Amino acid sequence: MDQQSVTMSDVARAAGVSVTTVSYVLSGKRAVAPDKREAVQKAVAELGFRLNTVAQSLRTKRSRTVALIVPDIANPFYAQLARGLQDAMRPERYHVVVCNTNADRAEELLYLDDVVRRRLDGVVITPQWLAPEDFDAVRAAGIPVVVSSDTGPGSLDLVRADSHEAVDQAVAHLARQGHERLGMLAGPAGAPAGDPRLELYRAAAGRHGLDLPAGLIVRGKHTREAGAEGLRRLMSRKKPPTAIACVNDRTAVGALEAAEQLGLAIPSDLALIGHDDIEIASLVRPRLSTIRYPAYEAGSTCGRLLLERIAGRAGRSEVALRTRLVLRETT
Amino acid sequence: MDQQSVTMSDVARAAGVSVTTVSYVLSGKRAVAPDKREAVQKAVAELGFRLNTVAQSLRTKRSRTVALIVPDIANPFYAQLARGLQDAMRPERYHVVVCNTNADRAEELLYLDDVVRRRLDGVVITPQWLAPEDFDAVRAAGIPVVVSSDTGPGSLDLVRADSHEAVDQAVAHLARQGHERLGMLAGPAGAPAGDPRLELYRAAAGRHGLDLPAGLIVRGKHTREAGAEGLRRLMSRKKPPTAIACVNDRTAVGALEAAEQLGLAIPSDLALIGHDDIEIASLVRPRLSTIRYPAYEAGSTCGRLLLERIAGRAGRSEVALRTRLVLRETT
DNA sequence: TACCGTAGCGCAATCGATTGCGCGATGGGA
DNA sequence: TCCCATCGCGCAATCGATTGCGCTACGGTA
After folding, report:
1. Residue nearest to nucleotide D19 (CA to C1')
2. What is the mean predicted confidence (pLDDT) over B158-166?
3. Neighbours of B174 (CB within 10 A)
4. Which of B301, B303, B318, B312 is nearest to B123 (CA)?
5. CA-to-C1' distance for B38 and D25, Å?
6. Measured between CA atoms, how close is A52 to chain B, in angstroms?
7. Largest CA distance in chain B
8. Chain A environment of B75 (Cβ under 8 Å)
9. Does residue B5 surpass a pLDDT of 90?
10. CATH 1.10.260.40 domain position(s) in chain A
C-alpha cells in the first residue's frame, strides 16, 4: 500500500558507502573509485532506488517543471501550442503542467500565484486580462515568463504573430473581388492590450479603400457560438457587410454555420476569412480561407525562449512568427 | 533576479512567534490565540509570504499533482479528455502534467518512471503498449492509476467505452442498407490488449450476416494519414468493401479525403463509419456517421476515480461509458 | 490549599536529497 | 627521508516546511 520508498541512505548502507558517495555516483559530479561506483550501481538496481525529485527540488530550487496557462486546452489551437511547447521541453527533461483559465482573470491570477508557490521554473502564458503589474510577484520570484499573444507586457519575452502583411493581402484580395463593406467578428471588449487584429484590419481597410464602420464590428469570445451569434447580429444590420474577417477560425466556423442556416451562399453572398488555420479550417465546406499561424511552432519557440531564460539569458526577446494568407473557398 | 524568497521563519520572526505557530495559523489545524493569529497574518501579508509547496510535498509526501499520459495532446480526442480531467481535479487544487508518448512504448515507460520519481499523487493513462507488469513500480510506490482505454490491466481502475450496443446498431443499419462486405480500418497490430473495437465489429457482422473477411482488415495508426492509406489499400482489393468501419474519427476523416480523391461517392459507392464523434466529425462534408464517445466525460470520470483512490478507496472500479450511434451522411 | 484538565505554544526531529569543507592515503619530486 | 599535490571520500549543514511531545499558565473543583 503505502510502500516505504527506498532512499539514498538505504542505498548507501547496502553499498557500504556514505550518501555523499551515492549522490556523486548518481550525478557524476565528482570522481568515484570504480569499485565503489559499481557497488552503488548494484545497490541502486537491486533496491529499485529512484531519486526523489521533490527532495532534490527543495535542495536545488529547480523543479524541472513549467506551467502553460491558456484559456482552454480543448481548443485545438492551444492544444497544438501545448504540443509544440512540450516537444521543446522534453529533451531537457522538463514537465509541463497545463492550466485552463477559461479566459477568466481570476483564474489567470490564481494560476500565476500557484506558479510561485510551487516554485516552477517558468511559465508560458496567453494572458487575456492581465496587466503588467500582475506579473510582479512572478518576476520578484525570479521566474521566467514567456508570453504567447499578439501583444503583451512590454518587459516580458514575447512570441507573437506578425500578421501585418497577411492581413494586408487578405484585404487587398477582398477589395479586388469588389467588396466594399467589411465587417469583423473581433475579440472580447475591454482587453487590456486592445485588439491588435482588429487594428490590422482597420488599417488595411483604409489602405485598400474598404469601409469597416464601427457598427460592423462585433465583440465576442473566441468560440463557435460567439461566431454564430456575431454573424446573425451583423447580417441583421440595415446595411450588412459583404465580407467578414474573424478573429480566429473557431468564430469563423461558427459564422459559417450560422450563414448556412440563414441561407446565405458563401462566398457569393458573403465572404469569410478566419485566422490561425487550425485543422478544421481545411475540413469544413466550403473550405475556410484563413491566415495561417503556426501554433505548434509558436509553442516550441516559447519553449526555446524559456529554456534560454532558465539558462540565464538576460535581454528581452520578442519573436514575430510570420503568418501567411491561405485562400480557400470562402472568399 | 534570484530573489531570496520569504520563508516561514521570516514570518515567525516578524510576528514574534515560532514557525510552529505560523504553520498552525496557516493550516488551521490547531487553535492559536487571536492576537498571535493576527500578528502572523499581518506578517504574511506584509512580507508577501507564500508557502513553498516543494518543502510541503517533501514533508507530507503529497504533491497535489497528477500525470496524464496520452499519445498526443494535439489530438482533439485527448485534448477533450484532458480538459475533463483537469476540470475534475481543479476543485481539489490538483495540477495535471500532460505527457505525450506518441504511442511509443519507450516513452510510456519513461513517463511512468518519472511519475514515481516525482512522487506524483496519481496517473491517468491511455496505454498503447504496456503490459500489466509494467505498472509494478508505480503500484509498489502506492501511486493510484486510472486507465482510460477500451481495455486494460485487469487490476487497475478502468474507464472505458461500452460500444457493444452502438456497434451492433451500426452494423444492423449497414445490413439494412444492403451492405454485404464490410471492411475495417483497425488499430495497430500487436497491441497487448488486442483490438476490442475490431472484435465488436466482427461479432456484430456475424450476427447480422455481413462479411468481414481478414483480407479487408487493415491495421494502422490512429491518424488521418493512416486512414487515407488504409482506404486506398482496401479499395484496391479484388473485391473491395462497400462499407468501412474506422477505429476512430481521425482515420475516418483521412479515409473520407482519400475516397474523395479516388472519385468515390459517399455514401452511395462506399459507406463510412467512425468512432468518438470529435468536433470535426460533424464539420466535414459529407458529415461523418460515427459512434459517439464522451471524451470530456471520460476525463472527468477518470478524475473522480483518481480522487476517490487518493482519498483511500480500496476496491477496483470500472466505469463503462455508454456510446451512442450518430447517423449522419456517410452511411 | 492541593490537584488536575485544558488551552496555547515551542523545541527539535524529520522528510530525502546536495554540497562546502576538511581529512587521510598515495605517490612523485627534491 | 620529507614535503606537498592530488585523489577519494565522508561529516554535517542546509533547503522549508510538518508535527509529536512536552512545558507553562490558568481556572475550576474538592
Report:
1. B20
2. 95
3. 25
4. B303
5. 21
6. 5
7. 88
8. 79
9. no
10. 8-51
* B247, B187 contact by CB (below 8 A): yes
User: Which CATH fold would you assign to the domain B61-161+295-321?
Assistant: Rossmann fold (3.40.50)
Which residues have CB atoms below 7 Å from chain D, the nucleic strand? Answer: A 17-21, 30-33, 35-37, 55, 58-59, 61; B 5, 7-9, 19-20, 23-24, 26-27, 29, 50-52, 55-56, 58-60
Q: How much is the pLDDT for A3?
A: 52
CA of A124 to C1' of D22 (A): 49
The stretches in chain A having pLDDT less than 70 are 1-4
pLDDT grade for B1, boundaries at 50, 70 and 90: very low
B54 touches strand C (CB under 7 A): no
pLDDT averaged over every residue in chain B: 94
CATH number of A8-51: 1.10.260.40
pLDDT 10s digits, B13-40: 999 999 999 999 999 999 999 999 999 9
**Å between CA of A9 and C1' of C24:** 23
Picking from B237, B276, B171, B100, the residue whose alpha carbon sits closest to that of residue A299 is B100
Strand D nucleotides within a 7 Å radius of protein CB atoms: 7-12, 14-20
In CATH, B164-292 is 3.40.50.11780: no
Question: Could you give the CA distance from residue B322 to residue B102 in angstroms, rounded to a whole number?
Answer: 27
Q: Which of A151, A92, A157, A143 is nearest to A127 (CA)?
A: A151
Q: Is the CB of A52 under 7 A from strand C?
A: yes
Determine the distance from the C-alpha atom of residue B138 to the mean position of all C-alpha atoms in its chain, rounded to a whole number.
Answer: 18
The predicted structure's pLDDT at residue A44: 96
- For strand A290-292 and strand A324-326, is the pairing parallel, antiparallel, or unpaired? antiparallel
Is the pLDDT higher at B203 or at B151? B203
- What pLDDT score does A1 carry? 36
